[in-house]
Write a structure and sequence with these properties.
The protein is α/β, with parallel strands linked by helices. The chain has 9 helices and 27 strands. It has 3 domains: 180 residues, FAD/NAD(P)-binding domain (3-Layer(bba) Sandwich), CATH 3.50.50.60; 125 residues, FAD/NAD(P)-binding domain, CATH 3.50.50.60; 86 residues, Enolase-like, domain 1 (2-Layer Sandwich), CATH 3.30.390. The longest helix has 18 residues. The C terminus is likely disordered. Bound molecules: flavin-adenine dinucleotide (FAD).
Length: 427
């Protein structure tokens, strides 16, 4: 454990080493909080941006230090204690203590920002060597090592993480296939029109797309050699990467008796307070009463996690504003396809392509930024539900999301203290 003193006391304990906990630390100091703050993470790295792992970091384009949310000096200058390799095993809500190894930490208020873990592949052979997941820098380093000697890789899953990973592996010169049950990558979340743009781009980058495929088993000796599909096809594989989703990391919450919600996350009210008055949650683990959706939701995206960390910090300092946000995420697949999605709700499938005539200048400008070497043309889609616009997807910068964000936030409370215009916030 790095930096953790013997039994001690802190005013605010942030549990987790992702953008949510880092956002909370930053906001507490920004708001002028002068008490003691400690951030405990089970990882050996200070908080970093996971989104690089499937992109530049996997391709070897950036160094580990470039992933960091804050520089080493930031933690010192802001007097936030950083406890690395410090998994919190238990929190006692009655006494306000946390157990980290044999040490005991007394806290006044705590933030649960324990994020999510990868969903594991469940089929024969899933435990063979050469089968990888991507959540940490350690995972990415391990995968990169294996890719140096690989000829064939199979990426399992149709998510944005799987698509980004397949594009990066192909760029490293490894023959890459992508297998998933849907008709096209990302089709389940963004519909078939966006899915087919993604499929075309991946094919252009050399990835063999096998939609409509179910993996039956992985075969090999100690190492994986073959991926067997339900239709009997066998794909050669020296490396397999599984990208089939994530589950909220709630071990600690369960152990401490905090209520969980229907999505499996830690149940929070609209201000992100959990079932205990001195404990809040933020990020992938947080299921909150969303005033915007009129129900409880849990969102697994970088900007939202960071915004929730900042919001929880303000709540700890006395704000009772509800957390109110659109869903925003982006994905970059290879070097030439960038997709932004802004939605009030999960986009769904009522999709209309948008006429971009009115956005001509923007499209021309964006064409110079994105897709320079033959990637997809800028395009945009509107998502609807019952005649109402509930979201937009913008391909290669076709839309000004700041502008359409205003459409989507023209709902009650959008100007309240808790509302988050995510595109105006720096993550
Ligand atoms: C490979 C990858 C690519 C992604 N790409 C994108 C993208 O392009 N766009 C996008 O919007 N989103 C992307 N995401 C999602 C985004 O990274 C997550 O939404 C975000 O990381 C969530 O932040 P968090 O702080 O809630 O949790 P996490 O980042 O998961 O951090 C949780 C931290 O808590 C630690 N922890 C857990 N339990 C304990 C404990 N008991 N004690 C101490 N520490 C503990 C974990 O080790 C981890 O450090 C990507 C995610 C991954 C994995």
């Amino acid at each position: 454990m790095t930096g953790l003193p013997e039994d001690c006391e802190v005013d605010i304990l942030l549990i987790g080493g992702g953008v949510a906990a880092a956002g909370a630390a930053e906001e507490l100091r920004r708001q002028g909080f002068r008490g003691s703050i400690a951030l405990a993470t089970r990882e050996s790295d200070p908080p970093y941006y996971r989104f690089y792992l499937t992109k530049d970091y996997l391709r070897g384009g950036i160094a580990p230090d470039d992933l960091a949310v804050h520089s080493p000096e930031w933690w010192l200058d802001n007097n936030v204690q950083l406890w690395l390799r410090a998994p919190v095993q238990a929190i006692d809500l009655q006494t306000g203590t946390a157990r980290i190894g044999r040490r005991s930490v007394r806290w006044g208020k705590a933030l649960l920002a324990t994020g999510a873990n990868v969903r594991l592949l469940d089929c024969p052979g899933a435990g063979l060597h050469g089968v990888h997941y991507l959540r940490t820098t350690w995972n990415a380093d391990d995968l990169r090592k294996d890719l140096q000697i690989a000829r064939d890789a199979v990426v399992i899953g149709g998510s944005f993480i799987a698509a980004e990973t397949a594009a990066s592996i192909a760029a490293l010169g490894v023959r890459t296939s992508m297998v998933f049950p849907e008709s096209a990558p990302l089709a389940r979340s963004l519909g078939g029109a966006v899915g087919s743009i993604v499929a075309d781009e991946l094919s252009r980058l050399g990835v063999t797309i096998r939609g409509g495929s179910i993996v039956e088993s992985l075969r090999g000796d100690e190492r994986v050699r073959t991926v067997v599909l339900a239709d009997g096809a066998e794909l050669r594989a020296d490396v397999v990467v599984v990208g089939v989703g994530a589950r909220p990391e709630v071990t600690l919450a369960k152990r401490s008796g905090l209520p969980l919600g229907t999505t499996g996350g830690v149940r929070c009210d609209a201000t992100l307070r959990t079932g205990h008055e001195n404990v809040w949650a933020a990020g992938d683990v947080c299921e909150f009463d969303s005033i915007r959706h009129g129900r409880r939701v849990r969102i697994e995206h970088d900007r939202v996690a960071a915004a929730q960390g900042r919001h929880a910090a303000r709540a700890m300092l006395g704000s009772d504003a509800p957390f109110d946000t659109c869903l925003y995420f982006w994905t970059t697949i290879g070097a030439d396809l960038h997709i932004d999605v802004l939605a009030l709700d999960a986009p769904g499938h009522e999709v209309t392509p948008l006429d971009l005539t009115a956005h001509r200048d923007l499209v021309l400008r964006q064409r110079k930024r994105f897709g320079r070497t033959g990637g997809p043309e800028p395009a945009a889609f509107r998502y609807g539900a019952g005649g109402e616009t509930i979201g937009y997807a913008s391909i290669n910068g076709a839309l000004s999301l700041r502008a359409v964000q205003r459409d989507l936030t023209s709902v009650p409370d959008a100007s309240s203290e808790g509302s988050h215009l995510l595109l105006e916030e720096k993550s």
